[in-house]
Design brief:
alpha+beta; 10 helices; globular
């Protein structure tokens, strides 16, 4: 059954794309599966709900609302060509506003996979390789993701039978050759997923690539344990666990993980950025050493 949101999208997206159904919805917008009639392939179309963000005063790139937000995301994706990052195909505007057309991925979010069971070490190694390679490509373009979390990583099964992970949704990213200030929502709250956010995001301090690495380390911890590294019954309690560095016992929850690999994961989520891995490529090199 076609709901009203899908019907509206079908009426307003350009005639090139036939919307088939909604496949996702987040804080900033909705994503639809569609058919590209010209190339006869399935695509994903993203639309924003409405004005979704403002920027802390002093930030180098203030947002002008809905259209700017989506076009910024599209430019961000368009600047990166990498097998571990979702591909942008097209960008358009119709009477209902701007929309981005992206690669349609047939797979499962890492979040859903972890709900069944933590990742075995072989699959975890693939996750590490793919996510860090994707982040390295983004960071080389001075692009921060700023919202790394399991729902923004997709697990795909390739025709060869191999697994591949892709990073999704650079909706909070911006070009940032210099450290950027964390984006705020319209109510003044910090955007992002609280279990995976770095302390400097709560502090509204300048961000850099090590902020993405912290969030990625939280994702890695979660992938190995199916639990969050920083826990609490309320949002403020989770935030304070990050701030006070009250990290969960990874080694106890996964006794099969070698101590060197435990230390490697925990280095991502150290309180001070300068104590973390220096870069995604540095972390990947160290991973190869500890797992050799």
């Amino acid at each position: 059954m076609v709901d009203s949101d899908i019907a509206k999208a079908m009426e307003t997206v350009t005639s090139r794309y036939e919307v088939l159904g909604k496949i996702g919805q987040g804080g900033s917008g909705s994503v639809y599966k569609a058919l590209d009639r010209h190339l006869e392939r399935h695509v994903a179309i993203k639309r924003l709900h409405g004005p979704d963000e403002i920027v802390v005063p002093g930030s180098p790139s203030p947002s002008a609302g809905t259209a700017d937000s989506l076009f910024r995301e599209a430019r961000t994706l368009g600047a990166i060509q990498h097998p571990n990052i979702v591909t942008l195909y097209d960008l358009g505007v119709d009477e209902d506003g701007p929309f981005a057309v992206m690669e349609y991925l047939r797979g499962r979010p890492l979040e859903d996979v972890i709900e069944k069971a933590p990742l075995p070490l072989i699959e975890f190694s693939i996750l590490v390789r793919d996510v860090l390679n994707g982040l390295a490509a983004a960071h080389a373009c001075n692009i921060l993701h700023r919202d790394m979390k399991p729902s923004n990583v997709m697990l795909l099964w390739l025709p060869t039978g191999d697994l591949q992970f892709k990073i999704l949704d650079f909706g909070l990213a911006k070009f940032s050759a210099k450290p950027a200030v964390q984006t705020m929502d319209m109510a003044g709250g910090v955007m992002g997923s609280i279990h995976f956010m770095a302390p400097e995001q709560f502090e509204r301090a300048p961000l850099d690539a090590r902020t993405d690495l912290y969030s990625t380390g939280c994702v890695f911890f979660h992938a190995l344990t199916a639990r969050h590294p920083f826990a609490g019954k309320t949002g403020p309690q989770v935030m304070m666990a990050h701030m006070d560095h009250k990290v969960g016992p990874l080694a106890q929850r996964r006794p099969d993980v070698p101590p060197a690999l435990v230390d490697w994961v925990l280095k991502f989520i150290l309180r001070k950025p300068e104590e973390r891995h220096a870069s995604a490529m540095d972390a990947l090199r160290t991973f190869r050493e500890v797992t050799a």
